[in-house]
Amino acid sequence: MDRTLAADLARLPELLEATRRAAADALATLDTRPVLAADGAAPHSPAPLPEPLPEDGSGADAALAAFRDRWEPRLSASAGPRYLGFVTGGATPAALAGDWLTAAHDQNSNSALDGAGQDLERETVGWLRELFGLSDAQTGTFVSGATMSNTTGLAIAREWLGERLGVSPGEDGAAVLGPVRVLSGAPHSSIAKALSVLGLGRSSLVPVPTLPGREAVDPAALDRALADSPGPAVVVANAGTVNTVDFDDLRAVAALKERHDFWLHTDAAFGAFAALSPEHAHLTAGLDAADSLCVDLHKWLNVPYDSAVQFTRRQDLQARVFQNSAAYLGPLGSHPDLVHLTPENSHRLRALAAWFTLRAYGRRGHREIVERDIACARALGAELAGDPAFRLLAPVRLNVVCFTLADDPAPARLAALREAAAAEVFVTPTVLAGTPALRAAFSNWRTTHEDVRRAAQALRTAAREIA
């Protein structure tokens, strides 16, 4: 064994303790350090020149010191309460503990030949199914994020199209399907990416008109578009759009199956968590009608990156797409190993962090996080609506505030606003109905109304600076 490696092994408890202290220091300063480091505020800030690969290593202690010196100061406080960019959760204490143990046990939970990890994942999927009000007809599998969840769901949809046409794109390629139509009102960008990866093509995505002033699909327009589609189609419904958290009427969309032949994929990356709030659960009515369903867990479940779950009613088609034949793997059977259900032949035991946080805090604890974040989003919306420097572009339906400058909302001015406020609050740019805008997304378990006050004040100050 390499001498340095052997020395680290002999000192492993001390090294883990040093790492624990470094992690505790990083988390303890989330509330006080800049949300975005100064050299990270600008989108094209220069990175430090890379160091050459060392010929002889200096051990884990030296590596930890080098990380803390060179890289830690550049990292954002994305685990903290005022990182409101994208839709970024944090990691609850239990989820963090579960993630550390995931690395320590280092399980590749894909095979029944070593099946404990698979069993833990299936138990966790069952808890998530119950959390979102889904029926037992939905089977689920962990994947890396919403993009992979959407891609997996649409891969199953692609095989369903083949089943309807008497062919198998999994065996013979997507070309056997001929032209494909994928209909959606306001799809997330990952849908087009998935269609490209799956060989269906970005041009197969057909936009359907949305309701006036909304991002929700117009069911009547979708009805007409389906009537104009030759043969079976795919519909991508949205349960929470990224700009305004708008929801398609999932029951109305599903009811169109009485007249049209289509696969229903629902993207509920973070909108599914509305099911936890009695006030907002009606938004997810019809979620279980999906043939495939995307839910992202490193958003509002507050588990570390990367983690999502993919549900489907047709696990048989899923296994047909992703089956992996090798002498060392088990047969498909009626309960296929996880290796037969996703693009990954190997994946870490992602389910453990989710298992920990669900076991630790239960439905009630996670409902409190969701409802507090919604209340914080409403509070920021009210603060900005009452300030003449800003204009809300949509009502605060759930956990995202979509806003812009009241005067001259040019992209350059919005970028200047973001950069001026970035030490205290981080928001991300978007465009809504042609208007450049900013989004503040609340999904972190740490966020409180005090963070809303600080974020609002930082945005007001930044608006004055760029005026």
Automatic annotation (TrEMBL):
Q: Which cofactor does it need?
A: pyridoxal 5'-phosphate
Keyword Transit peptide listed? The answer is no
Known InterPro entries for this protein? Answer: Aromatic_deC, PyrdxlP-dep_de-COase, PyrdxlP-dep_Trfase, PyrdxlP-dep_Trfase_major, PyrdxlP-dep_Trfase_small
Region (Disordered) residue ranges read 38-59
Q: Which SUPFAM superfamilies does the record associate with it?
A: PLP-dependent transferases
Q: Which UniProt keywords apply?
A: Decarboxylase, Lyase, Pyridoxal phosphate
Provide the family line: Belongs to the group II decarboxylase family.
Name of protein: Pyridoxal-dependent decarboxylase
Query: What organism does this protein naturally occur in?
Result: Streptomyces goshikiensis
